[in-house]
């Protein structure tokens, strides 16, 4: 029996010691702070770590969170300056900086911050109209933070920032705002469409103008190139003609070469040999002088044969002139006359309207070419024609009884080739 009592006493002592130790030793975690009271009076502020308390004398108050805390408050109805009720949701970020003040200066700092935020929000937003409240969130946040920080400082609390989550106007105002926004968006869309159409028209007009300018420049350049090419061709031909030192005989020969092509056309019934080509025909009278009589009464076949014979004789004369003059490759007057005979032979047509130069006309052209002085030759021809006219008149007039004897006719100039 005594042993049983001793065991019970020992167990009681052990339990008492355990309780005393549990009350005396406390561990405070990181970012926490504790207030130690001794006999109900503030003793100290205990930080993180091991804390020893006097049993039955010291007491540790609930630990305070020293980290920044986020508290979201429910929507608060606020009346604006234009008497519209809006619902505002707020979020407050705060941190305990003085555990003693937070424990002894305010009973419930979270409720105090909520109520202070509501009253300050009503004061700030109450001085604004709806449009300012909707567009001035940053300004409202700054004003709320400043007002809250002034009051909560003595509570050992620092307000980091205040955010407005939402500002909800009445439903009627929301409908009006939506209509206004739709109208504004429609107006902006119309403006953008008009600007796009205007810009498109400007770009199209600019493109057409540029295209017209480029086309005109291209046409002008094409004309310039064509004119330059034509001028270059003319200059080249002119230089080639001057470089070859062409004589009147060569030019006459080139002109005579075009007669066959002219004869091929059905519309050409008469060939005209200009007077400046008379030098090329100065030997023509000699070629035809022996055959003038009766040539006009020759038949078509006889004329062809006569022309062929003349061409052969003129070819022989041309070869003799080339050998005598020593100018190879350049045709002389006789060659031009021979080619004229060949052209006349090759271009003979049976059209009665075709006109050939008569032998007298050819002899006259040859004589003009031989004289070299057109004015003197013209005066001589006029004198011959006047003498011939007087001779014809004298033969046709009746004989007179008296009068001086007839004067002899002036001697006709003879062609050198005939002599």
Automatic annotation (TrEMBL):
<dbReference type="InterPro" id="IPR050710">
    <property type="entry name" value="Band7/mec-2_domain"/>
</dbReference>
<feature type="region of interest" description="Disordered">
    <location>
        <begin position="313"/>
        <end position="419"/>
    </location>
</feature>
<dbReference type="GO" id="GO:0006508">
    <property type="term" value="P:proteolysis"/>
</dbReference>
<dbReference type="InterPro" id="IPR001972">
    <property type="entry name" value="Stomatin_HflK_fam"/>
</dbReference>
<feature type="domain" description="Band 7">
    <location>
        <begin position="23"/>
        <end position="181"/>
    </location>
</feature>
<feature type="compositionally biased region" description="Basic and acidic residues">
    <location>
        <begin position="313"/>
        <end position="326"/>
    </location>
</feature>
<comment type="similarity">
    <text>Belongs to the band 7/mec-2 family.</text>
</comment>
<dbReference type="GO" id="GO:0005886">
    <property type="term" value="C:plasma membrane"/>
</dbReference>
<dbReference type="GO" id="GO:0008233">
    <property type="term" value="F:peptidase activity"/>
</dbReference>
<keyword id="KW-0472">Membrane</keyword>
<keyword id="KW-0812">Transmembrane</keyword>
<dbReference type="GO" id="GO:0098552">
    <property type="term" value="C:side of membrane"/>
</dbReference>
<feature type="compositionally biased region" description="Basic and acidic residues">
    <location>
        <begin position="352"/>
        <end position="380"/>
    </location>
</feature>
<dbReference type="InterPro" id="IPR036013">
    <property type="entry name" value="Band_7/SPFH_dom_sf"/>
</dbReference>
<dbReference type="InterPro" id="IPR001107">
    <property type="entry name" value="Band_7"/>
</dbReference>
<feature type="compositionally biased region" description="Acidic residues">
    <location>
        <begin position="404"/>
        <end position="419"/>
    </location>
</feature>
<protein>
    <submittedName>
        <fullName>Regulator of protease activity HflC (Stomatin/prohibitin superfamily)</fullName>
    </submittedName>
</protein>
<dbReference type="Pfam" id="PF01145">
    <property type="entry name" value="Band_7"/>
</dbReference>
<keyword id="KW-0378">Hydrolase</keyword>
<dbReference type="InterPro" id="IPR018080">
    <property type="entry name" value="Band_7/stomatin-like_CS"/>
</dbReference>
<keyword id="KW-1133">Transmembrane helix</keyword>
<keyword id="KW-0645">Protease</keyword>
